[in-house]
Amino acid sequence: MIAVTGATGQLGRLVIEALLKTVPAAQIVAAVRSPEKASDLAARGVQIRPADYNDPVTLDAAFAGVEKLLLISSNELGKRGVQHRAAIDAARRAGVELIAYTSVLHADTSPLGLAGEHRETEAALRESAVPFVVLRNGWYTENYTGSLAPVLEHGALLGDSGDGRISSAARADYAEAAAAVLTRDEQAGRIYELAGDTAYTLTDFAAEVARQAGKAVVYRNMSETEYKAALIGVGLPEPVAELIADSGTGAAKGALFDDSHQLSTLLGRPTTSLATVVAAALAK
Length: 284
Known about the structure:
Elements: E1 2-5, H1 10-19, E2 28-32, H2 39-43, E3 47-50, H3 56-62, E4 68-71, H4 80-94, E5 98-104, H5 115-128, E6 132-137, H6 142-145, H7 148-154, E7 156-159, H8 171-182, E8 191-194, H9 202-213, E9 218-221, H10 224-233, H11 238-252, H12 262-267, H13 274-283
Parallel strand pairs: 1-2, 1-4, 2-3, 4-5, 5-6, 6-8, 7-9
């Protein structure tokens, strides 16, 4: 039995899809906060169990009989350390034999502000006595392609990453890798640094968008303070704007670069190219 937390999220759904290629649906548990959002998965035979990181009782029930658990990191910034520890404790009580956790690239040395809660969770895993494997995911290319409309409208991509090289990959690549780890033996104790095969700067990204869209697009580099203000100006909450701006300056310091090719090795194929993800976004 394999359980996936956050199974109705963007990554979680893709992991379920990848698992369904090789694992019988009845052996997959979608642990979700809102079961009604997983009706399509239930219709395909996936077990749907309520699971709220803030309610340990639901976690105990959700993880009952589970052998392997994919703990997808929560999106509630500032609360994730406590939430993840609750899930790890529940997994231990349930007798889970392996926890796979979605951390962040080079979490142990990363300058990213968001890496702190990941380091806290990795420490909790080490203290738990439950066998675990860490999937240190790099950036999703969709983090950039998800907002192409305003980029094309204004002919400019804003950011504060300078000439930092970004080894991103498609979200589906990371999902497929997670499914591979969950269905293979002897994964306990491993730490995977997962990133795309080819790195690019945001200037390169803007040029690729321009090439495919047939419209002039340039990258406009800003200071972290200026970029944060610009994000707030378009309606993002200040904590989110601060996180994005901090991540940008982290990229300038190399936080989003990795050339170990561990992701493509896990997949047994090259990671999805920047051009492919841009094309898919433009097609929408």
